[in-house]
Design a protein that fits this description.
Order of helices and strands: HEEEEH
Number of domains: 2
Bound molecules: zinc ion
Radius of gyration: 30 Å
Number of strands: 4
Structural class: alpha+beta
Helix content: 55-70%
Strand order of the largest sheet: 1-2
Largest sheet: 2 strands, antiparallel
Length: 98
Amino acid sequence: MLFFIIWIICIPLIIWIVLRIISRRKAGEEVDPGVQLEECALCHEEFPMNALLEKEVGGYSRVYCFCGNCIEQLRSEYQAKVEQSDGGNQQISESTNG
Ligand SMILES: [Zn+2]
């Protein structure tokens, strides 16, 4: 009988302790700022996700993140290359015309 009484007191106590541990963990997660840092695939600097562009690269469904600076750099490199090749094409077309 005594064991039964102790058991009845213990079960809610154990449940209460477990719930407290769970709620503490949840509270801890909420306190943690939700800013998830992700590494840029090109410069390997860490940025928050909203400052990165996610792109699936290659045939392995691997997602890479690219930061604005690297995208801007790629764009200017591409621009320089396109302008260079455009210049070359113009020279060729001019020579064929003339
Ligand atoms: Zn970068």
